[in-house]
Design a protein that fits this description.
Elements lengths: L1 H21 L4 H27 L5 E2 L9 E2 L1 H27 L2 H28 L5 H11 L1
Antiparallel strand pairs: 1-2
Helix pairs in contact: 1-2, 1-4, 2-3, 3-4
Length: 146
């Protein structure tokens, strides 16, 4: 939960900063785009995941009961690509709604295509360094205590 909140906060801050610069310093527009994006992105992400859960394409499905399923790399790549497309479209529509300027809306959406994956990479690397909240770490810690 904390990881999800930190990612959404970082991603929204990215959108706000980009929108601020693209619109020539219009804080009201930048904050409106970023603020509404928090809600729309969560809704779209929920339905994006539901849609992907309806297809078995790219899943390794075990024959053993209770065995976890795993996504193949091509499925993960396709999910990432479709999410980025949906996310960029969402940003474009919101930016167009608040700026009423197709050049600004397009610029904000296109810049995010480059900034979001970089930020996401570093966000993942940061969280990979932490042991807090990881099941394997917690189990190992519990074993050492007993």
């Amino acid at each position: 939960m904390v990881k999800a909140i930190t990612w959404r906060s970082l991603a929204t801050l990215d959108t706000i900063v980009i929108a601020f610069f693209v619109t020539g310093g219009q804080w009201n527009q930048a904050l409106a785009i970023g603020g509404l994006e928090v809600v729309t992105k969560m809704i779209f992400y929920f339905f994006h995941e539901r849609a992907w859960n309806q297809t078995k394409w790219g899943k390794k499905i075990g024959d053993v009961p209770n065995e976890k399923t795993a996504d193949r790399k091509r499925r993960s790549f396709a999910k990432a690509a479709t999410w980025r497309i949906l996310g960029s479209l969402d940003t474009f529509v919101l930016a167009q709604l608040f700026t009423k300027n197709i050049k600004h809306a397009s610029s904000i959406a296109v810049i995010e295509i480059f900034t979001k994956p970089v930020l996401y990479f570093f966000h993942e690397r940061f969280w990979n360094q932490l042991m807090w909240g990881k099941r394997e770490f917690e189990e190992l810690k519990h074993e050492k205590e007993h």
